[in-house]
Every structure is written in structure tokens, then in C-alpha cells.
Amino acid sequence: MKRNNMFKKTIALFLVLIILSVPLVSYGEGQDTLEDNLLYFYQVKELVKDNYAFDINDNELIQGAIKGLFYFLDDYSNYYTKAEFEELLGSVSGNFVGVGIVVSEQDGYVVVVEPVEGSPAYKAGMKSKDKVISVDGKNTIGLSSKDVVALIKGEKGTKVKIGVKREGQASPIYFTLTRDEIKLNPISYKILDKNIGYIKINQFNENTNENLIPVLKEFDKKNISKIIIDLRDNPGGLLGEIVEVSRHFVPKGPIVHIKYKNKIEQTYYSELPKTKYKLVVLVNKNSASASEIFAGAVQDTKAGTIVGVTTFGKGTVQEILPLSNGDGMKLTVAEYLTPKKRSINGKGVVPDVVVEANSSAGTKDPQLEKAMKILQ
Question: How far is CA 10 from the centre of its chain?
Fold first, then answer.
């Protein structure tokens, strides 16, 4: 898709050059030094700047050219403006400044799914199903969740007034909240029948292993030795976090091999003497990247059973790189391999036990039921 877009832009650009008949460097005829390429770029930039019908400045053109570099790379490599980069860092780390609400869009409203425990919104009494109708006096009905979140975000320590419509209340409720740093806990857990521990991991952010440790300690105190790890719809996250999480479950040996462009391999290991739990890992087509590292490691080392459907198939590693002007980029720098050096890029992890999800609303979860049956 990126190549097609760039091809169209290139064709359009050359049509302009032909029509205007402006002499350029004889590009592509053996002159491919850096100096020639930069001169060619400068001439094209000036041509566009002088003849484009609307106002555009050098900074906009140069930023567009930089973004254009990424059209030829894979879909996971991207260039970000300063604002976009800050948002990316927040989403990856699991930490951001705000009031602490998870929202979704329903019937023209942005609705609170849940307030994050311990957050300003939670402490003030904001509730699930509250409909956000205003932010600092601005009507938010009909706005997208992205736009509403942008209004709510701000500097730590500053205040924001949020109006909500609550079911059963005739008048709106207004909350004046002080923005604070929010740490998202990607882990939820419960104890199922037959003393089976269930852990849902939504993402591998900076807080994942930190929040997993007390859960495992609680399970150990209650003599829970059978665990289901649910990675369905988990898009992945940080390599360091998945390695730390894997060390609780994968026996001594390789967890993952990282293969870089220069053929250098870096291997991350577990030192766990032996597996502590009888384990089932649930996956689906949206389990990607770090989730697949975990599933692949569990499968290769026979540390547990993988149940569900074939995973997404993202077997590459991205590095997040800040730039001097505050912008940044995410660049694919390596491919990862399972402990047995299997590549899952474009293939995914095929479960040991294939169980399709039941798409009918309100029905039971056949994948979870199968996991429980395996552990009984």
C-alpha cells in the first residue's frame, strides 16, 4: 500500500516536471552520489515551492520528504511529529498524564468504560457508563473518542472540568479533576473453578511484570498450580517486559533469539530450574508480537499448551528512536525467532489445540472452557 501511494506521488511529480520543462540534474544516469541526490532533492523542493498553488514552507516540505522515506519500509516503521511521538511513548510505556478513564464511542457519545483504579476520576466518583458531554465547557457530544481524549489530556497538576450524563440523573454531573500521571495496569485476574488461576494480559507495557508478580505470589499462597494466561487481543509491547514475564513460566534455556541485519543474534534466557505451573495460553488472530514471543517460547519448551487460533504473525522487533527536534521514529531493526529458531513472521503461532471462538453474543467462551478442561 505504501509503495503504491509513493508510486502515484512520484508519477504526479514527474508529470509536473515535464509540463514545466524545468531543467534538472540528469538524475538516474549513473550520478548517484549523495551530493547529486541532495542537489536533485533541493531542485525538486524549490520547483514545488515556487509553483505549488497554495502556501507551503520549507519545513513542511522537508518533513513531508522525511515521512516519504518510510513509504518504502514495512508497515511497522513510521515517522512521528513531536505530538504524535509523545502519544506513542505514552501508549507503549503504559504511563500518561490525564484523569484516568478508559473510554469508548456509543451512540454519539464518548462513554466511560471504567475509571482507572486510584486515578483522579476514580477518586472523584466517576463511574462506568457515564457519558462525557463537555470538557472545560466545550460540548463533546458527537466528537470522536480521540478528540475528547485530546481535550482531557494536559500538563500534570493542571485542572480540567468534565461534565457527564449519568443514567437515572436528570441533571449533568460535573467533575473538576487535577491531571496526574496514570499508570495503566494491563493485568486482571481471578480464580476459576477447580482452583485454576486465570490471568488476562492486555499489553506488555512497563507495568506488566511489576503487576504480575503479586498475582503469582497470591496464587502461590493459595496453592494454585494451574494457570491460564489469556493473550487474546494482546497486540504486544516491550521486548524487555515479555522476557521478564516469560522467566516466570519458561524453563532454563532460550526464550527468544533476536536476529539483526548484520546477522548478529542476541538471545534472551530463562534461568528457571523447572516449570512451576501447569499452564495453558489462550491466543487468537489479534495476539501479536510480544504475545507471540511468549506463546512460541511456551510451545517450543513444552512449558504449557497453546489453545485458540493461529496468531497474527508479527515476528519483527521495532526500536523507538527520539530525534533532536522532539520528533521521533519507530524502525524495524530485527526479526525474532522462537527458542527452536522458528520464524513466525507472516505465519503466526499455530496452537497445539485449535479452538475457534464463538462469535455469537452472550454465549460461553469455548476457548476458555477447553483450557479449563485441559487443566482439570
Answer: 31
Known catalytic membership, residue 314: yes
Residue 169 designated active-site: no
Which one is catalytic: 77, 119, 134, 289?
Answer: 289
| C-alpha cell recorded at residue 320 | 523507538
The 10s digit of each residue's pLDDT in 218-243 is 999 999 999 999 999 999 999 999 99
Residues facing 226 on adjacent strands: 196, 278
Grid coordinates standing for 8? 502515484
Residue-wise pLDDT tens digits, 128-168: 999 999 999 999 999 999 899 989 989 999 999 999 999 99
Q: Alpha-carbon distance 211 to 225, whole Å?
A: 19
Sign of CA dihedral 291, 296, 297, 301: positive
CB atoms within 10 A of CB 25: 15
Is residue 324 among the annotated active site residues? no
Domains (range + CATH), the chain: 2-72 (no CATH), 95-183 (2.30.42.10), 187-375 (3.90.226.10)
Tell me the pTM: 0.77
Residue (of 315, 321, 313, 320) closest to 334 by Cα position: 315
Which residue among 77, 134, 318, 367 is the active-site one? 318
Alpha-carbon span 259 to 335, nearest angstrom: 5
